[in-house]
Specification:
The longest helix has 32 residues. This protein is mainly α. The chain is built from 16 helices and no strands. One of its GO terms (molecular function) is transmembrane transporter activity. Keywords: Cell membrane, Membrane, Transmembrane, Transmembrane helix, Transport. This is Major facilitator superfamily (MFS) profile domain-containing protein. It is a multi-pass membrane protein.
Length: 407
C-alpha cells in the first residue's frame, strides 16, 4: 500500500492532503466546542444547521465551480483555494453570535466546493493504474481517519496550552502548509473537453453520474454512510455532555473512536477488493451502518456508545473508500473533474438531509428517537442500493461505454 508513496508527485500531494485535513479537523473540533459555548444543550441543532448549510452550498456550487476552474492551471487553483480556506478559518475566533458561524460556514464551503473535486481528480491523473489508485484511495481514507483520531488528540493537547481560539489559528497553519507542498511539485494538466461552456460541462458530469447504475447505487450507499456520520458528528456532544453528563474530553475521545473504526476497516479494503466486487464490500458496510443505528436506542453508557461508534466507523469506511474507483472508472480523462464534482455535489445532498435530520430530531424528539429515524433512513438507502446496482457488471460497463463513445 505504501509503494505509491515512491511517486514523488503523489508523495508531496498526499502530505499536502494530510496538512489540509489536520487543519480541517482542528477547525471541526473547535466548531463543535464553540457551538456548545454559544448554544449549550441546543448545540446539536446549531451543528446540524451549520453542517446542512455546508452541504447545501456544496450541492449548489460544486459542479459549476469545478467546471469553471478547469480553465486555469491546476496547481494555481489548488494553492489559491487552500489559502482562501485558511483566510476564512482565521475569522472564526472573532465569532460572537450563532448567525456569524452560519455565514462563515457558507464562505468556507463555497471554496471547498471547487477544491475537493479537483483534489480527487488530480489523484486519479497522478496514478492512472487502478491498483495504484486503489492504494492511494486507501491511504487517503486512512488520512481522513487518522485525522479523525489525531485532530481530537491534538486539540486536547492544544487546549491545555491555548484557549479555544488557538485551535482555529493552528488550523489556518495547516492550510498554508498544504498550499506550500502543492507549490513544490508539478501536477498533470487538466484536460477538459472543448466546445462546452461551464453550465454544459457541469450538466454533463451530472448526466454521466445519474446515467450509470453503479454510481446511482453509490449515491444510495453514501446516504447510508451519511446517516451514520451525521449521528456521530452532530449528536456526540449532546449524547456525551448532556445525556451522560461527561466532560468535553469524552466527546473528543468518542469522535476519535469513530475514526479508529473507519481506519480499521479501510486497511482491509485492498484485500477485500481482490476477493470481492465493490458491490459486496459496500453493501456490507451499509448493513453495518443501518444495523448500528438501529441498535443505538439501546445505548445506556459511555462504553456501549464507544463500541457502537466503532461499528459505525467501520461501515462508513467500507462504503466510502472504494467510491473513487467507481467514479474514475465511469469517465474518460476529459470528464474526470466534472464527474468528481457531480459525485461531490450529489453525495453532499445526502449529508444535507442527514445532518439536518440528526440536528433537528436530536433537539426536538430526543436521542433515542433520532437513532430510530436515522436507522430507517439508512435502511431505505441500503434497499435502494441493492435494487439499483445490478449484480451483472456487463450492464454497468455498457452504460459507461456508451457515454465514452460520445467524447
Amino acid at each position: 500500500m505504501l509503494s505509491v508513496l515512491s511517486n514523488p508527485t503523489f508523495r508531496a500531494f498526499y502530505l499536502a492532503q494530510i496538512a489540509s485535513l489536520v487543519g480541517a479537523g482542528l477547525a471541526t473540533v473547535a466548531l463543535g466546542l464553540m457551538a456548545f459555548e454559544l448554544a449549550g444543550s441546543a448545540a446539536g441543532a446549531v451543528l446540524g444547521t451549520a453542517l446542512a448549510l455546508k452541504t447545501l452550498t456544496t450541492v449548489g456550487l460544486s459542479p459549476f465551480v469545478t467546471a469553471w476552474l478547469e480553465r486555469f492551471s491546476r496547481r494555481s487553483v489548488l494553492i489559491g483555494l487552500e489559502i482562501a480556506r485558511g483566510a476564512v478559518i482565521f475569522l472564526f475566533p472573532f465569532v460572537t453570535e450563532v448567525w456569524q458561524v452560519y455565514v462563515l460556514i457558507v464562505l468556507l464551503h463555497s471554496v471547498s466546493a471547487g477544491l475537493v473535486p479537483s483534489v480527487r481528480a488530480t489523484i486519479s491523473d497522478i496514478l492512472p493504474d487502478e491498483r495504484d489508485y486503489t492504494r492511494a484511495l486507501v491511504l487517503t481514507q486512512l488520512s481522513y481517519d487518522m485525522e479523525t483520531v489525531a485532530s481530537p488528540l491534538l486539540a486536547l493537547l492544544l487546549l491545555s496550552l491555548v484557549p479555544l481560539d488557538g485551535l482555529f489559528i493552528v488550523a489556518v497553519a495547516g492550510f498554508f502548509v498544504s498550499a506550500a507542498l502543492i507549490a513544490s511539485v508539478s501536477l498533470p494538466a487538466q484536460n477538459p473537453a472543448v466546445g462546452l461552456g461551464v453550465g454544459a460541462r457541469a450538466v454533463k458530469g451530472l448526466r454521466i453520474y445519474l446515467g450509470t447504475p453503479m454510481l446511482r447505487c453509490l449515491l444510495a450507499l453514501t446516504f447510508c454512510a451519511a446517516t451514520a456520520s451525521a449521528m456521530v458528528l452532530v449528536n456526540t456532544v449532546v449524547l456525551v455532555q448532556s445525556e451522560l453528563g461527561l466532560e468535553p474530553k469524552a466527546t473528543v475521545l468518542a469522535i476519535g473512536v469513530f475514526g479508529v473504526g473507519s481506519m480499521s476497516a479501510a486497511v482491509l479494503i485492498p484485500r477485500l477488493l481482490d476477493r470481492f466486487p465493490e458491490r459486496v464490500v459496500m453493501l456490507a458496510g451499509a448493513c453495518l451502518c443501518s444495523g448500528g443505528l438501529g441498535a443505538g436506542a439501546a445505548v445506556t453508557g459511555y462504553a456501549t456508545m464507544l463500541l457502537l461508534w466503532l461499528s459505525l466507523g467501520s461501515g462508513y469506511a467500507l462504503i466510502l473508500t472504494p467510491a473513487g474507483r467507481l467514479v474514475a472508472r465511469a469517465a474518460g480523462r476529459s470528464d474526470r473533474s466534472v464527474l468528481f464534482a457531480a459525485q461531490f455535489a450529489l453525495t453532499h445532498a445526502c449529508w444535507f438531509i442527514a445532518y439536518l435530520t440528526a440536528g433537528m430530531a436530536g433537539a426536538t424528539v430526543g436521542i433515542a428517537f433520532t437513532f430510530a429515524i436515522l436507522a430507517a433512513m439508512s435502511a431505505a438507502g441500503l434497499l435502494v442500493a441493492a435494487l439499483v446496482w445490478p449484480a451483472d457488471h456487463a450492464a454497468v460497463a455498457a452504460v459507461v461505454s456508451d457515454d465514452r463513445r460520445e467524447q
